[in-house]
Amino acid sequence: MLLAKTLAEIRGLYEEPMAEARRRWSSFIIPPGSLGRLEELAVRVAGITGNPRPTVGAKAVILMAGDHGVVAEGVSAAPQEITHQILPAFVKGVAGIGVLGRLAGARLVVVDVGVAVPVDCPGVLPRKVRPGAGNIARGPAMSREEAVRAVEVGIEVVQEEIARGATLVGLGDMGIGNTTPSSAIAAVLGGFTPEEITGRGTYVNDEVLRRKVEVVKRALEVNRPDPADPLDVLAKVGGLEIAGLVGVILGAAARRVPVILDGFITTAAAMVAAALQPLTREFMIASHLSEEQGHRLMLEHLGLSPMIYLNMRLGEGTGAALAMHLVEAACRLINEMATFEEAGLSNLDEEKILYS
Question: Which of 61, 125, 200, 284 is deepest in the core (most CB within 10 A)?
């Protein structure tokens, strides 16, 4: 089974390349630690790739699209039709992720893993496992077999992109109503209450927010997902695009490629991936802090710190695309800055620079 094989292939960070990268940082003609988290980021990428002087080549943002039956409960201000209607805008590059992905030089890969209606849009990868997830307020989102298949779609897609040369992968999502199942996943795997983890999604009003919280509670009561079984949680209260994103994370980790999380939905997928294989956390980079109220709690649960604070809440992979610039900057710095020795500076010069 592809999922089991992929999980078995994931290993931890390479320690020696990380140590070598730290030594190089300590010898640069700058005060120690003065580039802050950029230094940490370069060292992390060294540990992921095994290269003490890592570089960023081809980049890809993989956007998974799927629908949710739970929209029937009135949890979203947007109609479900938006999911498939916006796909051509992604492909044409005129949606938010199209612009920011292009700016980052990233290939955008749009995947139909669970859109509710037939998708006839050139450029969208047809990988539909089923037409939309079930209404989690009344039953499971999908069967366990369907959840596994959707995860494996993600593994297949990301490993195809890596085979094409991708060295850095960003996550994106599209699915009206998907903040509700993401809240349910986070509540189960993070031990949070529905009240503290559930946010406004498509900027719903107070009445709809209260309804969302009640729907999340009902989904947990009806389905009783097992927090010790991540696939059970994913199948019962998740979504097809969330499952696809779980696979992207796992597949990238198995091939030792850094994967950049976007916002609330992709972080819910990250929680599932980390529950399946804790080592995947080492391969995750948190791009930004979403305006969704529970996102900070989810990132803290994963032990990740976001790099960007821009009050963003769009999704699509927009935060991941922006963070690609920072990952590339960190790698450029470790390769292109000069050490004291390379710059021909003496130890006395070093002391003056560092301590004056």
Answer: 61
